[in-house]
């Protein structure tokens, strides 16, 4: 959006910002908040502080101080933005996902060599987990968390016996950590860093980025549940939750949703184990001592791929789930219909986590759910799988529509990164990162509000 376009929506922006920044105590903080939103929405290749300040005609230190050292409550802004987003969008689903922020150096908070779907490979990056509200017409980010890798948590450094104090950390193999600086060619002989020195290095990095002591490594699926709990504290609850296989394959994540009374339809991997929907546990002979054993399924659990292959592709029915949006660049992709071939089976997810979630005096019957399978015509095996606890009378068409509703968040990430500078923050502090992404999310919400309430306003695609 150019200066003229921003001027045309100046009144709407002022009213919107007054609501978002109502909790900021000082008028200069509220004014700088509006200025930062303007900088994010103004046309420009970079949305880091110095280029934004130049376009706004202000000292970049003013923006830097607002992000890194000013005393305003970023959680309050996130809460007001999330509440406004749910009210505006009236979401059909919430979506959990994560995205990567590529970095060149080692100093940004929680940067590490890790896999990023954004990069499509292992690279030097930050990873953020997010929760979105979505319909087919609109979407918005509700909450963010910056992932803390094991290399940024001294409680993940194993002792001489290979044990770690962080309960979420995997049992680490003792691998040598090099002393050479990032970017320099590694010598053929690798020198292992002593444990005490590794801890000192981690503590120094955490202190430099001002990472709160309570922020520790934990898996991304647990961070997603934490955000869902935080949103519930704000009186925001998902109508249904969906996620990709990175989350859906984790039984603890699915069980966490069930424990919170949240319906879900989540992608999973072909190796997920289940019992067939019509399977029944059989009594186990009593040994004569101790408590009576719980009935057990006579046959071992099978992978969902095995069940799908046994079912075969002949029962797969074509389902259309939405119209494809035309590409923004001419000649790239025409508009059309998105459809595929699917079938659904009733299954009973297996595993220790599911069993532990059963009532104490249970009869051994595992809860049943939907297995949704996509099998492209002509392929030798299915391409995608989903699990869902939606009611048994849910139609195949509705299952497919909901399973495919994740597409909207790709629009969120694309708009936030290419248009609003989500990944342009160059600071090193933990609080600065969270404030920047919160303000970028707030700017996107303002543009979404314009699209839904005033489609002819400037800045529309």
Structure description:
The protein is of the alpha+beta class and 461 residues long. The chain folds into three domains: 3-83 and 410-453, no CATH class; 150-209, no CATH class; 241-389, no CATH class. It contains 15 helices and twelve strands. Strands 1, 2, 3, 4, 5, 6, 7, 8, 9, 10, 11 and 12 form a twelve-stranded mixed beta sheet that branches. Helix 3 packs across helix 4, helix 3 (27-41) crosses helix 15 (430-453) and helix 6 runs parallel beside helix 15 (430-453). The chain is globular, with a radius of gyration of 25 Å.
Question: Would you kindly provide a brief summary of this structure?
Answer:
With 461 residues, this protein is α+β, with helices and mostly antiparallel strands. It has helices at residues 3-8, 10-20, 27-41, 49-56, 60-68, 74-89, 195-209, 220-233, 245-248, 251-259, 304-311, 352-356, 396-403, 407-419, 430-453; strands spanning 93-102, 112-116, 121-134, 139-146, 241-243, 264-268, 273-276, 302-303, 317-324, 336-349, 369-374, 384-388.
Salient structural properties:
single chain; 461 residues; alpha+beta; twelve-stranded mixed β-sheet; 15 helices; 18% strand; Transposase; RNaseH-like_sf; IS701-like_DDE_dom; IS701-like
Which structural class do the helices and strands define? alpha+beta
Shape: globular
Q: Report the sheet with the most strands, covering strand number, pairing sense and barrel closure.
A: 12 strands, mixed
How many H/I helices? 15
Could you state the order of secondary-structure elements as H and E? HHHHHHEEEEHHEHHEEEHEEHEEHHH
What's the mean pLDDT score?
89
Poorly predicted tracts of residues: 172-177
Rg calculated over all Cα atoms: 25 Å
Work out the helicity level.
25-40%
- Per DSSP, what share of the residues sits in E-state strands of 2 or more residues? 15-25%
- Counted beta strands: 12
Distance between the termini: 10 Å
Summed up, the domain count is 3
Domain Transposase IS701-like DDE: 19-325
Pfam families: DDE_5 (PF13546)
Protein name: Transposase
């Amino acid at each position: 959006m150019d200066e003229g376009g921003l001027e045309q929506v100046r009144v709407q922006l002022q009213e919107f910002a007054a609501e978002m920044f109502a909790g900021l105590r000082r008028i200069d903080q509220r004014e700088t908040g509006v200025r930062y939103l303007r900088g994010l929405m103004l046309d420009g290749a970079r949305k880091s502080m110095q280029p934004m300040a130049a376009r706004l005609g202000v000292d970049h230190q003013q923006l830097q101080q607002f992000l890194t050292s000013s005393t305003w409550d970023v959680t309050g802004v996130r809460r007001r933005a999330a509440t406004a987003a749910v009210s505006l969008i009236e979401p059909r689903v919430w979506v959990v996902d994560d995205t990567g922020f590529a970095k060149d150096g080692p100093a940004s908070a929680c940067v590490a060599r890790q896999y990023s779907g954004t990069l499509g490979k292992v690279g030097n990056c930050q990873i953020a987990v997010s929760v979105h509200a979505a319909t087919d017409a609109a979407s918005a980010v509700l909450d963010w968390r910056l992932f803390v890798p094991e290399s940024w948590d001294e409680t993940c450094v194993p002792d001489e016996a290979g044990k770690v104090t962080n309960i979420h950390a995997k049992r680490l193999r003792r691998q040598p950590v090099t002393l050479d600086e990032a970017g320099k060619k590694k010598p053929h002989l690798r020198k292992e860093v002593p444990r005490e020195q590794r801890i000192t290095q981690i503590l120094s990095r955490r202190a430099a980025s001002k990472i709160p002591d309570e922020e520790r490594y934990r898996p991304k699926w647990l961070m997603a549940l934490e955000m869902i709990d935080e949103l519930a504290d704000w009186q925001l609850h998902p109508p249904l939750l969906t996620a990709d296989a990175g989350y859906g394959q984790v039984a603890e994540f699915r069980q966490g949703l069930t424990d919170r009374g949240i319906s879900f339809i989540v992608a999973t991997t072909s190796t997920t184990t289940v019992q067939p929907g019509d399977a029944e546990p059989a009594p186990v002979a009593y040994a004569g001592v101790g408590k009576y054993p719980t009935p057990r399924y006579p046959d071992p659990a099978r992978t969902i791929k095995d069940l799908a292959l046994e079912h075969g592709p002949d029962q797969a029915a074509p389902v259309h789930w939405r119209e494809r949006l035309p590409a923004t660049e001419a000649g790239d992709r025409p508009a059309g219909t998105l459809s595929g071939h699917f079938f659904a089976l009733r299954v009973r997810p297996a595993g220790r986590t599911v069993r532990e979630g059963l009532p104490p005096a249970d009869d051994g019957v595992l809860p049943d759910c939907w297995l949704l399978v996509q099998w492209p015509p002509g392929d030798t095996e299915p391409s995608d799988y989903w699990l869902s606890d939606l009611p048994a009378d849910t139609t195949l068409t509705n299952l497919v529509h909901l399973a495919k509703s994740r597409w909207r968040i790709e629009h969120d990430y694309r708009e936030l990164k290419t248009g609003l500078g989500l990944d342009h923050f160059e600071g090193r502090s933990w609080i600065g990162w969270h404030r920047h992404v919160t303000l970028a999310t707030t700017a996107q919400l303002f543009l979404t509000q314009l699209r839904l309430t005033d489609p002819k306003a400037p800045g529309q695609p």
